[in-house]
Amino acid sequence: MNASVISDTAFSTLIRTASHEQHAEAETTTFMGDMLGGKLGVEAYARYTEQLWFVYEALESGARALVDDPVAGPFIQPELMRLAALERDLGHLRGPRWRSTLSALPATEAYAARVAECARSWPGGYVAHHYTRYLGDLSGGQIIRDRAEKTWGFERKGDGVRFYVFEDIANPAAFKRGYRELLDRVRADDLEKQRIVSECKRAFALNTAVFLALGEEFPLSA
Ligand code: HEM
């Protein structure tokens, strides 16, 4: 990336533009397409939700130690936290013993391990993962919720899709604007910004790898 592009462009624009291609790739995986196209059973959705549990467990257990961090701290906001909602959804999808059925795909293990590593040792990298998940959930996540409600008959914004419902964010568009302002003020020099953008691309690739693995587990042609 050209040095002047980095210093002249708002960081929120930079990170969004730089990950655009990876976004399209993740969005158009067979698994996502089949799931959003209503072609898969609820078990595929449950398996996907289960994978998210591992990712958010790493993101949110790592968050506590970063609250006062000058780089990552401003991003950590209680209204974003998703683990409790995911656990409620899994209880609905898998029953009261859902915890004993949990298993991470190898691709999910790799994703969660990278998030945990960033949380432990690189706040800028943690910001990249934070952005990739939460801003996505607040955006395309709403499309997934709508399709899931229609395909598998979950109550609107109820059990099964609570992960996508940010109860404490009344105005997601305003929240996203505020989030982008935080990105624009991130305490990072140009080199670190470039590293964060690269980590964001890696975060998208880790998501795509999970979708590819899920696609193998739930092939349509079976
Ligand atoms: C089929 C699946 C998906 C759909 C339909 C979708 C759709 C969208 C849409 C419509 C937006 C734009 C919202 C806006 O302009 O405010 C968006 C933004 C975003 N999505 Fe997705 N998305 C999908 C999958 C993903 C995945 C897998 C990720 C990464 C884990 C992701 C991460 C993001 C991020 C980070 C943004 C915010 C971009 C920004 O404004 O900076 N999305 N998505």
From TrEMBL:
Determine if Metal-binding is one of this entry's keywords. yes
List the InterPro entries hit by this protein, alphabetically. Answer: Haem_Oase, Haem_Oase-like, Haem_Oase-like_multi-hlx
Keyword annotations for this protein, in alphabetical order, are:
Heme, Iron, Metal-binding
Q: What is this protein called?
A: Biliverdin-producing heme oxygenase
